[in-house]
């Protein structure tokens, strides 16, 4: 597996999704309180810094931010320096919230309204007509958080010594790329074939701008052959590969990557790590004195001095802290519909208010039976379409919507939302009718025999049962939904039992293809559907319904791959998506994607419950420059594109 993907499991490796960065843009408030993208204004002639830096022995601000810093127009007003942004993490693998808040600074960025990709770390970019070559110009004079220069040498180090190193990256994917460095600030990436998603992928993840050469060379055998063994022993690593991952890219199988657990790793973010994830009950960041963004008056960002994440046991503790006013901004874990009345009641005493989240997920709850189960008998049952249809008809979705989601939403399968160009009514609505008689009819075609208690038996006479795995770390509502669904299924003679577990254990079991059925959120319903179609065909570790087929898609020779290749219609989807990735034309991409979704409707991989209602987050009333509404998606990486560096506390 590619190095970063094996750690993060965020995207498919079939295209290089880890390169990232961003270019200069300013943002201004629209009448609706959202962001509008404008041209970068002239860099202010005078610059200044936060008072907390005055006593530090640092070069002048102008020497720390580079010649062309990104000038950000704050949403509401020029900010005030100071304060601590308090937030929380749940358990040991909540790195996604760190990525979204502290870590969203890439080569390019989503515009705050999610309408386009704009520059960020890069000052500019261009794309060749054939969609194979992508050229970037970096900001001259930028520095890492330790003060060392950031140049194309760092980008080249990643491409040639990490991505293209066979020991660190065992597969380059199906469309590898090379780098041509022109000078200290400009370079070109060239792919073997056209790649229509490079910029969108860069706006999501990390890679090109996350590997400081001056720091990581000491942990790379090609640059430190004589001293590497001593460093391996000193850090308790098995070999230099594990050492490099420990120091610079995380260790596969551990709950957090090095960027959040290694405080010595230089970074380009607004805040630098000082108390790592895993070493205590909190993760703390302080302002990066070399951050390369300023406001129109030349004040170096960020406005906020430090960010602190308490590592909490569960969402209930986080909810209590939020209600008590101890959380400054949060839009994860606790922002369920069921919790909204609780949080609303405490708004005045807690000193916070809501902001809106425009939903991108297409389903509140996904039930994914493992169609590539290692147990042949279970695999045969799960792969039977009639069985999945029967289970779907046995679910009273409206009762779930009323009881768990306070009557908000509508019955929905795994399908893009109606406002997208990929809406498919059949895919969205099929098998959502609650009909116990029809459910029994379909299930009788697969498992007609029952025991004395009315529970279905396998063809060999053994009791039929399976385990539904769910984590409350993602959403407590999932546990409530799963309890109801398990009861519905028992009503039609299907003996499913519920198992709650930490998401890190779920990921371990998922990656080993050891699960029967897993519950998750239905990502990929809005602009992200074509970029992250993990529930429309097996293309990602999050394709819970067919991990072995996903692995086959990535690397057919992998021992974890299904011994036999996926069925013809599944392979047809894989071929269609390969075509989409190679197509620079958005209209042609949409046509191909609609073909892929037609096959998804036919195959009905997994079972959905309901369309999510609009969401919400909370922010302290004195935390300013936070938009009143923002998109919500793992692809948009909210709130990252709204530029948290320009948030500030009003004194």
**Biggest sheet: strands, sense, closure?**
5 strands, mixed
User: How many domains, as an integer?
Assistant: 2
Overall spatial form: globular
Mean pLDDT: 90
Number of helices: 22
- The CATH class of the largest domain is identified as Alpha Beta
Give the strand order of the largest sheet, numbering strands 1, 2, ... along the chain: 19-18-20-17-21
CATH superfamily membership of the largest domain, which one? Periplasmic binding protein-like II
| DSSP strand count | 25
Structural class: alpha+beta
Helices, strands, pairings?
Elements: H1 3-8, E1 26-29, E2 35-38, H2 61-64, E3 70-71, E4 84-90, H3 95-101, E5 108-110, E6 117-119, E7 122-127, E8 133-138, H4 152-163, E9 177-181, E10 186-191, H5 198-202, H6 213-216, H7 228-234, H8 240-249, H9 258-261, E11 271-275, E12 282-287, E13 293-294, E14 306-312, H10 315-323, E15 329-330, H11 340-345, H12 347-350, E16 352-359, E17 363-369, H13 376-382, H14 385-393, H15 397-404, H16 425-429, H17 436-444, E18 465-470, H18 476-491, E19 495-500, H19 503-511, E20 517-522, H20 547-554, H21 568-581, H22 586-603, E21 607-608, E22 615-620, E23 623-624, E24 629-632, E25 648-649
Parallel strand pairs: 3-13, 4-14, 16-24, 18-19, 18-20
Antiparallel strand pairs: 1-2, 5-6, 7-8, 8-10, 9-10, 11-12, 12-14, 15-22, 16-22, 17-20, 17-21, 23-25
Helix pairs in contact: 14-17, 21-22
């Amino acid at each position: 597996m590619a190095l970063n993907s094996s750690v993060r499991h965020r995207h498919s490796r079939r295209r290089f999704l880890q390169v990232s960065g961003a270019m200069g843009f300013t943002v201004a408030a629209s009448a609706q309180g959202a962001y509008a993208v404008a041209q970068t204004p002239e860099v202010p002639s005078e610059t200044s810094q936060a008072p907390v830096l005055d006593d530090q022995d640092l070069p002048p601000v102008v020497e720390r931010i580079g010649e062309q810093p990104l000038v950000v127009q704050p949403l509401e007003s020029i900010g005030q320096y100071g304060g601590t942004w308090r937030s929380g993490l749940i358990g040991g693998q909540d790195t996604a919230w760190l990525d979204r808040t502290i870590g969203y600074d890439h080569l390019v960025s989503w515009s705050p309204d999610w309408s386009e990709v704009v520059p960020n770390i890069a000052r500019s970019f261009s794309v060749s007509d054939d969609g194979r070559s992508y050229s970037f110009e970096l900001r001259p004079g930028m520095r890492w958080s330790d003060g060392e220069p950031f140049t194309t040498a760092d980008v080249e180090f990643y491409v040639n010594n990490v991505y293209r190193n066979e020991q660190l990256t065992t597969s380059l994917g199906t469309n590898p790329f090379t780098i041509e460095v022109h000078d200290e600030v400009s370079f070109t990436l060239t792919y073997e074939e056209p790649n229509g998603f490079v910029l969108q992928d860069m706006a999501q993840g990390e890679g090109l701008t996350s590997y400081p050469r001056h720091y990581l060379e000491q942990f790379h055998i090609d640059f430190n052959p004589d001293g590497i063994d001593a460093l391996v022993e000193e850090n308790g690593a098995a070999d230099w590969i594990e050492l490099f991952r420990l120091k610079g890219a995380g260790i596969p199988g551990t709950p957090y990557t090095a960027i959040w657990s290694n405080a010595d790793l230089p970074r380009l973010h607004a805040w630098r790590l000082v108390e790592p994830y895993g070493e205590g009950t909190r993760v703390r960041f302080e302002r990066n004195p070399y951050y390369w963004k300023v406001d129109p008056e030349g004040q170096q960002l960020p406005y906020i001095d430090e960010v602190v994440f308490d590592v909490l046991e569960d969402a209930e503790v986080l909810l209590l802290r939020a209600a008590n006013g101890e959380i400054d901004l949060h839009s994860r874990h606790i922002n369920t519909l069921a919790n909204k009345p609780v949080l609303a009641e405490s708004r005045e005493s807690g000193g916070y208010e809501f902001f809106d989240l425009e939903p991108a997920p297409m389903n509140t709850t996904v039930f994914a039976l493992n169609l590539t189960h290692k147990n042949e008998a279970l695999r045969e049952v799960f792969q039977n379409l009639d069985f999945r249809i029967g289970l779907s008809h046995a679910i009273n979705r409206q009762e779930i919507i009323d009881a768990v989601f306070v009557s908000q939403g509508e019955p929905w399968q795994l399908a893009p939302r109606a406002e997208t160009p990929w809406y498919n009514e059949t895919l969205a609505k099929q098998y959502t009718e609650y009909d116990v008689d029809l459910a029994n009819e379909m299930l009788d075609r697969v498992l007609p025999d029952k025991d004395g208690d009315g529970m279905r038996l396998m063809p060999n006479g053994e009791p039929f049962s399976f385990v539904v795995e769910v984590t409350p770390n993602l959403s407590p509502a999932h546990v409530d939904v799963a309890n109801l669904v398990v009861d519905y299924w028992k009503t039609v003679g299907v003996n499913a039992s519920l198992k709650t577990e930490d998401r890190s254990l779920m990921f371990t079991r998922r990656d080993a293809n050891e699960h029967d059925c897993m519950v998750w959120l239905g990502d990929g319903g809005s602009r992200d559907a074509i970029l992250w179609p993990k529930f429309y065909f097996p293309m990602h570790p999050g394709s819970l319904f067919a991990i072995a087929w996903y692995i086959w898609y990535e690397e057919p020779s992998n021992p974890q791959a299904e011994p036999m290749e996926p069925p013809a219609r599944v392979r047809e989807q894989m071929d269609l998506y390969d075509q989409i990735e190679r197509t620079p034309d958005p209209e042609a991409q949409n046509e191909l994607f609609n073909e892929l979704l037609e096959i998804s409707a036919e195959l009905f991989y997994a079972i959905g419950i309901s369309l999510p209602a609009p969401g919400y987050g909370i922010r302290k009333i004195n935390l300013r420059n936070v938009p009143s509404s923002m998109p919500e998606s793992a692809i948009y990486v909210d709130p990252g594109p709204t530029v948290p560096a320009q948030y500030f506390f009003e004194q």
